[in-house]
Amino acid sequence: MSERNSAAAAVTIRPLGLEQSAAATRLWEEAGLTRPWNPPAEDFARAVGGETSAVLGAFDGDELVGTAMVGHDGHRGWIYYLAVAETRRGSGLGRQLNDAAEEWMRERGVPKVQLMVRSTNAGVVDFYERLGYEDGEVVVLGKWLR
Ligand SMILES: CC(C)(COP(=O)(O)OP(=O)(O)OC[C@H]1O[C@@H](n2cnc3c(N)ncnc32)[C@H](O)[C@@H]1OP(=O)(O)O)[C@@H](O)C(=O)NCCC(=O)NCCS
To answer: What architecture is the 4-130 domain classified under in CATH?
Structure first.
């Protein structure tokens, strides 16, 4: 994807490399997005190394201030680990990262983007609705394969 600059929040958004794993997972911990059953460094490495996935990072200079993991499965696009550093929230950076994620999908011909919100994080649904997302009225089922 092309680099995106925003004068408003003075950040640059670009795909991360493996060397940014520690900074990204630190941000995810701070944002309360990690769980013991999802080792964040493994999630990061799998997404960065995948052919149909990436982790987009927002930089203020050298400082990583936000992330969005993106991927597509041949049908839908998915966003995970959308996180903005605590001190940067409320200035439009979450929206910018979502815009960058949507652009990443469009560049790959993905017609629809989806995401999951943990029931313990239901407050963030209002944020996504501001960005144009709608409740898909689906129940997500899962099963571990490891
Ligand atoms: C959710 C999160 C990414 C939002 O980032 P942010 O930079 O604060 O959001 P923005 O400033 O871009 O806000 C975009 C819009 O959503 C609104 N908004 C932001 N947070 C909101 C909230 N909790 N409830 C309702 N609206 C919200 C803003 O007012 C803004 O509206 P506007 O552009 O129409 O004026 C950030 O709070 C975060 O990192 N949270 C912890 C991690 C998390 O829960 N991620 C989601 C996992 S599913």
So the answer is: 3-Layer(aba) Sandwich (3.40)
